[in-house]
């Protein structure tokens, strides 16, 4: 029934300046009746409607669209193609096509509305931004990723013109742009994904510099941008250390942009090898046993955490200093160092001095957690809330201290990397996910072994194998009890990753 409606609506062009229709005064009531029925069909109640109802509904939609096109043509003839009075019928037509799922038509109507709004308000009016946000939603429905990027850049430009290039609105939009780049790593495999991650790093670098100039280097306002800058470097290292072609591509792109210095191992034996294991043109760094390719980028990332710690020192915020110590410990664990334990001990002492009860701190540290955390939480309550959010999908009876909760992987090619935060205010894209419950042994260094599949929603062995391999590659903050990291022999996690669509 929905297919019938879509095909009928799709036969009628919505933007024909030479159209010769007229509107009647009952069109709004007609639209209201139509939308009610359309929503019932889309919501899944179509079995309750007879086939003649569908025909009637199609005729109502057609009649309404024809009436609004007639009104549109009449207004164009009298007032011209850019008169603001055209906006109302255009919006009404857009609502119909939106309910029908004719998003290409919606996009055309929104572009027309943008032209008219520009003519009325000027090309650089901030009042254009709400419409651009609407357009982003449609572009996501159409999977037009390039158009989404263009709309975000347009919004950033309008904020810069109206509020200044260092305004909070511009900084927030640049963060959305960076998050969108990271989202495209999963959404569009035809993109140069290593370029996207490097572009994200560069944008966060630019944003941080602007924020420092605006707020000063000791302002707590810098906290989210400092951590996003650190995370961008982690994502780069994670991509270089994948065991597939994406890893080789990332290494090549890093060498092209940054040179080879930060890909060298810390030992005198480090060099670049032409060994062809990732691809015909790849150059692979030779590293010491258990050392990550590009570990120098993680050392740079840890420097931003030191900056956060310094801000806590300057502002007298002991709680912030304690939290910064936790994040430093996490990065040391990811760098495969044992010094994370020292950081956790320091964090516990500082947080107690800041007035956080030992019971709350110990309860937080008792649960293993996949690293790194996706954002910086400036207070301990935020850390606790995030930890509890990971358990939201886990049955109450299974939420023992050994359960790390739910882990959503970024991509099948980045199976051991948590999905980055989506851009602010973006609608969630409904994408099929695979879900596997796993049990494993966790060492005092945060490394995984002895993985067992407990359950899987799919019978596909490839899906279980992906989850098994991902868990072996992940790094965790091990439980920290009595000032020591602990081994867990029956840790659990629910692993999820998006199903790859056929290209």
Structure commentary:
- By secondary structure, this protein is α+β, with helices and mostly antiparallel strands.
- It folds into 2 domains: 184 residues, Alpha Horseshoe (Serine Threonine Protein Phosphatase 5, Tetratricopeptide repeat), CATH 1.25.40.10; 207 residues, TolA/TonB C-terminal domain, CATH 3.30.2420.10.
- Helix content is 56%, strand content 12%.
- It is built from 17 helices and 11 strands.
- A 5-stranded mixed β-sheet has the order 5-4-11-6-7. It has a two-stranded antiparallel sheet with strand order 1-2. Strands 3-8 form a two-stranded antiparallel sheet.
- β4 and β5 form a beta hairpin.
- α8 runs antiparallel to α9 and α10 packs antiparallel against α12.
- The chain starts with a helix and ends in a 5-residue tail after the last strand.
- The N terminus is likely disordered.
